[in-house]
Design goal:
heterodimer; A: 290 residues; mainly alpha; 14 helices; 75% helix; globular; B: alpha+beta; Rossmann fold; six-stranded mixed β-sheet; 9 helices; 20 strands
Chain lengths: 290, 366
């Protein structure tokens, strides 16, 4: 970098990046952590005798049974979304990386990327249009006389999970695609020549090679899913309450202390998930950044 | 899955019958017809882009021929996938599995067969012994040298007990010394295992030193000649083979008189007596080929039939032999190579010299 910008230039660039990190990332984060360890108090009592550091906000997650169950359900549902996304994206990515060529490949990549030119909120609204009682899917099924009354697709968790799988598919497809594309065709041919069937080739050659990509895809999808607000808000039913919605409600009701505490818990959960994935797939942090 | 009969560790013969492979308008392999006897070391020799790799892919089953058929042990291989053929391939870049150890690489084919664990272990050990890497089982393939990787690739391919082993220029990435060493080793492994080896190379040294038989392919995917290395070198049947295999002096000629015991041709060098293996009729133009090592300098009496006066353009002393570039009176360039017996009189650049070569060693080809 010194070669590119000179000594002064390097100093300026580095201090700009440093200032941005300090004021936009580290500072607000520290303030949030500070909030999370203080009790919720009326304005006049802030800074008074009762304003002491406490674990009360964090412990609420364990004492409040609703919050606790929503938290656990959010983890499970996020894992479910991540698993479904992996299962759906693996064959798609394999096809894109190793089978499709030329115009077909460009067309398919476009078909995957173009929806992402639209805001996430709108993509989820589209699913609402498809899945609602008077939506396209119900109209189609009724038009074909397959059903008489509209099905409530949005009862329970399934609409949220479907919406999220779709919303974050790109973040799974591209890491997988990148990883699979770099596999030498001779490895596949070599395994095939030694008598391996297609499932064996995938299990022993393609998946081990694509492991860093799978890990990265899972981490991205999990973090986005666990932290998503729009999908549960727009597609959810009362039974599909998401942990982010609890955080949101706390901010809305001016209980920032509990809100920040829960936000920190969510951040820790994501960090823990990254750590588990990296261990599980024996992938280094370097691969993750790639 | 290979049947036990197919898996027996004895080579099978390969019959390539009228095989043509076209990729759109491009014909990569053109009506190739060859029978490769069981247990032989057979090389396809040709310049890059002559379709020899395509031919190997056809035998291994990665490609199906446009026309013609391939028989292994008399069985037509049409529609049989690469994982079901009794062949194993060693790829040009070896295609070892980088995430597996040496032993895991070699055991891959055995895993696929579902071989029992203890049997598998002893088989892997035996193979490591065969390729002279007895203690390398737990190493990563990325920790090995080029020559060692080569051997792992051979062991991995032989593990599935193929009756035909296909090798796609596997030595091309090695340095010269190692390449020469591996030639001997490959040959020894072939003789020990009795597996049919089909070897692809553009390196005539490899083809001539290792093979029982060589098939020379030309740029257009045509199999020009099949024979023992000696036959290919001493008795080329086409102008392409004569100029591609080894060094050769090529002299444009016109057939003057075609007789059974030999022929006379006209050239800018004058009238020459030659062999006419293709029985080219009088009046046709052709090329006469003379190997540099069959040309001798005339000192005193000895003459081999054809005799010319030349001037020495340059000479290169290489210890065991001397290579001379000569120019004839009409400007034709000729190369001469003589072995060094320590008694040859020294010649200087620009000296004039008489050379001679016998009709027996002069082939008129087209």
């Amino acid at each position: 970098m010194i070669d590119n910008f000179g000594k002064t230039g390097t100093l300026v660039v580095l201090s700009l990046v440093g200032a941005w990190l300090l004021f936009m990332v580290i500072g607000p984060q520290l303030i949030a952590i500070d909030y999370s360890f203080r009790p919720l108090l009326p304005l006049r009592k802030i800074g008074g005798a009762e304003d002491i550091y406490t674990l009360k906000n964090y412990l609420t997650l364990f004492s409040n049974t609703l919050h606790r169950s929503v938290f656990i359900k959010t983890i499970w549902s996020s894992i479910l979304v991540t698993s479904i996304a992996t299962a759906v994206c693996y064959p798609v990515s394999f096809y894109l990386a190793r089978v499709a060529r030329g115009a077909k490949l460009s067309l398919m990549l476009m078909a995957i990327v173009v929806p992402y030119w639209i805001n996430e909120l709108l993509r989820i609204f589209a699913w609402q249009l498809i899945l609602s009682d008077a939506g396209i899917l119900n109209q189609l099924l009724m038009g074909l006389s397959l059903i008489h009354d509209p099905i409530n697709f949005r009862a329970g968790n399934s609409a949220v999970i479907l919406g999220m799988v779709y919303a974050y598919i790109l973040f799974m497809v591209f890491p997988l695609y990148n990883a699979m594309e770099s596999l030498d065709q001779n490895q596949v041919d070599g395994a095939r020549d030694l008598g391996a069937s297609w499932p064996t080739i995938h299990w022993r050659i393609v998946i081990p090679h694509a492991k860093p990509g799978i890990a990265v895809g899972c981490i991205m999808t999990f973090m986005l899913t666990a932290g998503s607000v729009a999908a549960p808000q727009l597609l959810g039913s009362p039974s599909s309450f998401w942990f982010t919605q609890i955080i949101y409600t706390n901010y809305e009701t001016a209980n920032w202390n509990l809100g920040t505490a829960y936000s920190e818990v969510l951040a820790l959960l994501s960090l823990l998930f990254i750590f588990i994935m990296l261990k599980l797939f024996k992938v280094g942090l370097k691969d993750f950044i790639k | 899955m290979m049947t036990t009969e197919m898996a027996s560790n004895v080579g099978h013969d390969v019959h390539i019958k009228d095989v043509t492979m076209a990729f759109g308008p491009v014909t990569a392999v053109d009506q190739v017809n060859v029978h490769i006897p069981a247990g032989t070391f057979f090389s396809f020799l040709g310049p890059s882009g002559c379709g020899k790799t395509t031919l190997l892919k056809l035998v291994s089953g990665f490609l199906e021929p446009t026309r013609g058929e391939i028989l292994i042990n008399g069985i037509n291989m049409k529609g049989v996938g690469p994982n079901k053929r009794p062949t194993a391939m060693i790829f040009q870049n070896l295609a070892l599995f980088p995430l597996m150890t040496v032993a895991e690489n070699i055991a891959f084919g055995l895993d696929v067969m579902g071989m029992e664990k203890r049997q598998k272990k002893s088989r892997v050990e035996a193979l490591l012994e065969l390729v002279d890497l007895p203690h390398a089982g737990n190493l990563r393939v990325t920790d090995l040298s080029g020559g060692q990787r080569q051997r792992v690739a051979i062991a991995r391919a032989l593990a599935v007990e193929p009756s035909v082993l296909l090798l796609d220029e596997p030595l091309s990435a090695l340095d010269l010394k190692l390449r020469k060493h591996m030639r001997t080793e490959l040959r020894q492994i072939q003789q020990k295992t009795d597996v049919t080896f089909i070897y692809i190379t553009h390196d005539q040294g490899e083809a001539l030193t290792m093979s029982d038989r060589v098939g020379v392919m030309s740029q257009s995917g045509v199999l020009e000649q099949v024979g023992t290395p000696r036959e290919i070198y001493d008795h080329p049947r086409t102008a392409f083979v004569a100029s591609f295999v080894g060094e050769n002096n090529a002299i444009p000629v016109t057939m003057a008189e075609n007789k059974r015991e030999g022929c006379m041709v006209e050239s800018k060098l004058g009238t020459l007596s030659c062999q006419n293996p293709l029985n080219i009729e009088s009046g046709y133009s052709a090329t006469a080929f003379v190997r540099p090592e069959t040309i001798a300098l005339v000192n005193g009496s000895g003459s081999y039939g054809n005799q010319l006066r030349c001037r020495i353009l340059s000479q290169r002393f290489e210890g065991a032999f001397m290579t001379m570039e000569l120019t004839a009176d009409d400007g034709t360039l000729l190369t001469l190579r003589q072995s060094n017996n320590g008694r040859q009189p020294p010649l200087e650049k620009g000296d004039s010299a008489a050379i001679t070569f016998s009709p027996e060693h002069t082939m008129v080809l087209r």
